[in-house]
Every structure is written in structure tokens, then in C-alpha cells.
Amino acid sequence: MTKKRQLIFSLVRGLLAIFIALVVAMFLIFISSEGDNAAEKLAATGEALKQLLVGPLFRLNAAGISFEGKRLADILAAMIPTTFTGLAVCIMFAANQFNLGAEGGAMLGAFSAAVIAIYYPLPKGVHPIVAVLFGGLVTAIVMLIPALLKVKLDVSEMVCSLMLNYIIMYIIKYLMNNYYADKSKGQIQTYPFLNSSKIAMLSSDSVISAAKLTWGFVIAIIAVVICWLFMYRSRFGYQIRMIGINQDFAKYSGMKVGFIIVLSQLIGGFLSGAGGAIEMLGRYPTFSWSALPGYGWTGITIAILAGNNPLFVPFAAFFMAYLQKGCDMMATYANVPTQLIDIVQGVIFLFFAAERFLAKYRQSLVVKTAQEEIAQKAAQNKEGGQANG
Amino acid sequence: MAEEYVVQMKNINKVYSNGVAANQGVDFNLKRGEIHALMGENGAGKSTLMKMLFGMEQPTSGEIIINGESTVLSSPSVAISKGIGMVHQHFMLVPSLSVAENMVLGMAPRKGIFIDKAKAIEITKENAEKYNLHVEPEMRVADIPVGMKQKVEILKALVRGAKILILDEPTAVLTAQETEELFKELKGLKEEGYTIVFISHKLNEIKEITDRLTIMRNGRSMGVYETKDVSKEDISRLMVGRDVVLNVQKDKAKPTDTVLKVRNLEYVNEWNKKMLNGISFDVRKGEILGIAGVEGNGQKELIDMLFSLDTPDSGTAEVNGKSIISIGQKKVRDAGVSLVPEDRMLYGIAGTASIEENVISDRAGSKELNSGPLFNMKAIHELSDKLIKEYTVLCKSSAQQVGMLSGGNIQKVVVAREFSNDPVLILADQPTRGIDVGATEFIRKKLVELSRSGIAVLLVSADLAEVMELSDSLIVMHDGKIAAYFEDTTTLTDEEMGEYMLGLKEQTPEEIRRVCHD
Predict the structure, then answer these.
(1) Candidates 3.40.50.300, 3.40.470.10, 3.60.21.10, 3.20.20.70; correct CATH number of B251-336+425-435+452-518?
(2) What confidence category does residue A374 fall into, taking pLDDT thresholds of 50, 70 and 90?
(3) Which residues 243-282 on chain A approach chain B with CB closer than 8 angstroms?
(4) What is d(CA A352, CA A354) in angstroms, rounded to the nearest whole number?
């Protein structure tokens, strides 16, 4: 298939998946919306749809439509942790390792960074960097568990990492309850982070700081570029991708398959941990998470939307953040339950993950390309024949 | 007259979607109550023909008549309903379930929503007795010996009402005793009126058990014979002849130092079958040593050992004096060994990656292709463009997916990589199997060219023409042993080769030892 056709196919497929998800969502909203008759329900659904699609960026009221900078900043800020987890999942999935540990990884990274931020005073510029790196490293090391078990004992990394998320969560809860909690507070939370450890806002503008849009956003974009270079322009990323495509081929070519598989999960661990850490230090005054944050799950959706290509991660992360914001808007202004986003996410996820979705359409494009090639060749031969004749 | 035959396959043609014509105008028929051998080398089209009879593949054209009725076998379940059963070479059993549970799979007796295990065991016992095939109904399939697994498979087919049984190389995995037992049981079934198709290339077995035989070669039927009327020599000649004589120009080899030195390799596989039995040979600089033989006689295992894909039980293999036994593919490659793998789709390429990504897979870490932590993309583009040009890979650009190319061009990508890495030894395992004439000729020429430039080449091929034309000297493998060594291939006849390949003849140890140039 030509590149252009491939692109068209990906676009059509993506948009159709989103469209179907929206139709399903609308159907559910229609059922659950308030109203005495179908007409009223329909009106409520229409209102909800408007909020979902336009609400994330624009204020809708009787006076008309107006752009809301704060909402855009909110969306960009929400992208920070999910861009990191998205990248983490990309790199692990590219090696055909279905490690789902980015979820617990984000929490562990946040917690580890919090410990540094509270107890180890460091100079202003250095403190957050050390804390984030520490958060990433701790997570990377913990991610060795599923990676090594997979390589050495052929334990399913999927099951192992999935369980690991809960182990991480409960260990952190245990540590919080028994050692790190500020007992003077009503809820379980740590002592406040030292001021030197906070990640600075992008600007002192009130909208930016209200949205908590920190330098973490810039770091996330830099991480995207580095990850892309790593995956598509370095020998390690290359090996990760080749192993993901055909592990037997990689082994036969002389690649150290076990090492690369472990490496991919180390990097995945580091990225998810660092993402959690940046989110923690940028957004919160103390560590008070008592459940998994959800960034890792979103990261999986993002990686799948991005086709495991780091370059597409920010776009997918933007899309997911936009969708989240839209659902918040629906909840606020159109009385739609916020849980609906999970359903919309689920449906999109389903259609993207379904390999055979639109397979017939794809096949028709392949056939068309092949036929054109054959025709072209025949034409060339004819020309050649005439020239010879 | 038509009633004499339970199965008639008329003028069957089969072209696979990749363009391979696996069957060309094949006629095949079965009489009621006979054991019929289907013979031929690997790739001759036996399996394709039988897959069509079992409904796993559809013929491109031709007619299948079962019990006098023209039939379309659209799936195995249709075939089963017509009384056809197939026992595959690789068993289709669920290892974690018991024999009885496997037996009733898909037609299980129920007790409420549960499977009635007692009933399943009873059914199994009943049938085992009826057909005189002894199995242990309560044991897990994973725990029973291979011979019993096969009986389970045969019983499974019989329980489903099969009157015609297709056995795909049933003795390949069996010990001599198990084989004997199987033959007794098959004869019993035959007496009860069952028809059996027996796929094999073991001549002794064929002579012992079958009534008639059909021989296939290169997708065509070479005729149907009464087993008692043809000698083993006749069969071998019909099976392994050369259809096309190729002419690759090559001057006489001037072999020098020994590069690969293999001594006394022994290997017993997981089914306790001795696949390599005291293999010793040398390959020298500047020569092509061919390994001929019917597939499954240890060639695959030998290549696996030489490329560290498996570990022999004993024996040594050295390249330029350095052991290459179980050192991993990286070190084998560092020692200068290249492999053109038999299964190019599995080992040779990453299908959805680009041509460029495929040609650098063995040298992605090399200095030439890297600058600092990143790839030197310019060098990589140059390398891939150069290789595409040199090996005339037909493609739009080096960014094209390898999996989208034709078989011949995929193989060119594989050999481009394997031949261009300054090897001292090339292991070429079925380098031209299933690819078009142009690519075949190109690869053969390249092999000769490389050997004459001072590279040692070990060529394994089931294609007799190829191995005889290309090799300077030749060994024949049979049953895990070297059956013959020919220092000069030019005077060899196909008949002679066939006899060694099928184990009718064997050279003396002294003659064979000449392949070690100590």
C-alpha cells in the first residue's frame, strides 16, 4: 500500500472509532438525561454534546460562544502526566511487552519524589530535578520485577505488572499510614513539600498558575522528542521495535533479546515514575493519594491511539485530556455523570485495539494498490516493447 | 466401476495466494478398504492435496468425488461429516485435558452444564476396545507417550465416524516398536473396511503396509502403482528425479584451509529420537559443500547446532579453530558465520519493518552505522540503497515494508544482509525454496561467486537439482547419519543419489571419513 493510502486508512479508522464512541455515548446520555419526553431528552442530549465537543475550549452561554484560556491551560496541564505514561507504555508495547505497570509506576514515582521533596533539602533548581530522577529510578528498579521474571522464568509480564500496581499501591498506603502521615491532619497526607522542591509554573500569569501548567509540560514535550529519537534513530530503540515485530528474527540476527526486553521495561518504569513525580511536585502541596491515580490506564489508551509512536503521543494525550475536560463540562453544565468518559474511552479503545476493524476496507486498498502496480507494469512493458519494436 | 472408489480427486489444481502452484492437474483415488501410500519429497504437494481432501484448503479447480458423489469440502467439519478423518503430523490434542476429554471434544456428553466425565471415559473405553487401540482414558494427554497420543488421534477420528483416515507421516515421531504396533492396528482397521491414506517417504514401511501408492513430484502426480509391482529403486527414482537441469556456470573449486570443522555431533530430540548420530565433516575455504537428503533426516538439527539455536548432546564444531557450540547468535555471527534460514518468514525478516530496517538487523550496533548514541542515518540509507541495487531487490524504496514484497524479493533481502557482512562461512539452508526462477538463479550465482572469492559455503537443500549442480562436493544425510560423501558431484547420477537419500545404500565409514580433511 502506498504511504498516502496508509495514512488515509489510519485517519478514517481513527475518526470512525471516535465517531462510533460518540454515538454510543450520546445514546447513553439520551437514556440517562433528564426530561419528561423524548423531545426534552433530545434537547438535553444536544446540550450535553455541545458541552462535550466545544466546552473544553469555549464558554457556551446565552451571550454566545467565547474562548476560555483557562480551560485550554487545564487541558495542557492534564497532558503532563499522561504524556509520560503514554511514552512509557509506547516503549514497552513496542517491544511486545504488555506491561501494565505504568499505573502503579506513576504512583510510586510520585511517592518517591515526595519523600525527597519533604525530607532532603536541596538548592532550589536542583531539588525538583533530583526528586523527579529519584522517582523515575525507583520505579525503573521496581519494574525490573516483571521484566526479569519474564526473561528468566517466562512469567507473563501482563499479569505480573497488573498485580504489581496493587502491591505498590498498598505498600504506599501502609507506609503512609504508619510512617509518613502528618498525624496532625484530618486526612492521610504527608508533611508539606519543601518550597525548593516545587516545579515552577510556566508563567506567573494567573490563568497558568490556576491551571497548574508547570514547566513539566515543556519537559514532557522534550521527553517526546527524546523518546522518538531513541525509538527511531538509535540502535536500542531499533532493537526494541524489531523484537516487538518478530522476536525470533531479532534473536537470529544476534540481538540480545533478554537484555533489550528488560531495557524497554526499565525505560518504561523510569518514564512513568518521572511522570508521576512531575505531576506530584507541580500540582500538589503534599502527597495524599490513597488510590491509583489512573494516569497509567490513560497512558495505555494513549499509546494505542498513537500506534506506539512517541511522536503521536502528545496528540493522543491532548485528545484524551480534551475528552476528559469535555466530560467535566457535561457533568457541570448538562448534568451528565462524569463516569461516562470511561465508557467513551472504553469504546474508542475497543475499536482501536480491534485489529480486524475495517480489515475489509484495508484489504480493498491493498488490492487496489496491487492492481494499479500491475497495470502500471503492463503499461511500462508495452512502452518498452514499442520502443524495442 | 465408479463404486470401486470411495474417493476420486480429478484434475486438481491449487494455486496459493502467494502464487505458488502446489498442485497441477493431480488425479488421486482411493479404493475401499485399502492402505494407500502418498509419497513424495517435501514440497511435492502431498500435504496440499490432503488438506484439500480434509477441507482445510479449497482447490483452485478440479473435482472431488466421495462415494460417487461430487462434493465441495468447504471445511474440515464437512469432511468429517463425509467420513474423512485426518491425523496430523503435529498432534491436535489439548495437553492439559485427559485422553477421554480430548476424545469427546466438541461432542461431549453432558450432565447439566458439566461434561459427563464418566460417560466420556466410557465412550473412550468402548471405542478403544472396538477398534483395538489401547489408550488410558483418565490420563492427561501431556503425560502419555507419543505412540499413545497418535492412537488417541486415530480414535478421535474414528469416534467422529471416519471411514477414510489420512495419516500424515505417522511414523516420523514413533520408535520402532511403536511403529510395529501402529502397523498391526492399521491392518486391523483395513480388514474392517476402513480406507487409509498413509503419507510417508520411508520405503520399507511403504512396502510393508500399503496396497497401492501414488507418487508426487513438484506438484504433479507421477502415477499410481500397485505396491507389489514396484521395487524400492523404482519408487526412489520416481520420487527424487530432476525435472529441470540448471546450468550455473562455475569453474572448479580450489579449496584451501578448513573453515568449519564438525566432529561427532550427537543429538537426541525431545521425543527421544536420535536426530544427529556421529556427524563429522569439514568445509573448506573456496568450496561449496552440499548436504542432500530427504527433509527430517537431521539437516535442520545440524543447522540449529551450527548457529547456536540448540545444543548438541556431544561433539564439537569449530570455525577457524574457535568453538561455536552454544555461544549465542551474536558470537556465532562475530565468528563470521552467516545463515540464510530455512524459514525466511520466521527467522529471516521482520515483516512489518522496512527493507532498510531488515538489512541492518545483524549490524545495528556497528561503528559504521552509528554516530554517538544515535544512528548514522546517512550511512544506513547508503548501505540499504547499495544492497537493494546490488541484489536487484524489486521495490519502490528502502522504506517499503518487507512483508509486502514477493517471496523472491524477500529472500533477496535476506541474502543481501547475510552475504554482505564479510562472512567466512555461509550456511545456506534451502536458500531458494519456493521462490521464482529469476531470484533462484540470482542467489545460486551469488553463492558460487562468494565461494570462489574464498568463503566457505555449506548448502543444505532438499532440491536435488540445486544441491547437485551447486555443490563442489556433497554429503548425503539419512536418519541422522552421513550416508555418503562424494568428492566430485559431476559424475553423480540421480538414481545413485536417490538410493542413498532413501537409505537403500550406505557408504563405508572409510569412504565417509574422507569428508574430514585432517
Answers:
(1) 3.40.50.300
(2) low
(3) 245-246, 248-256
(4) 5
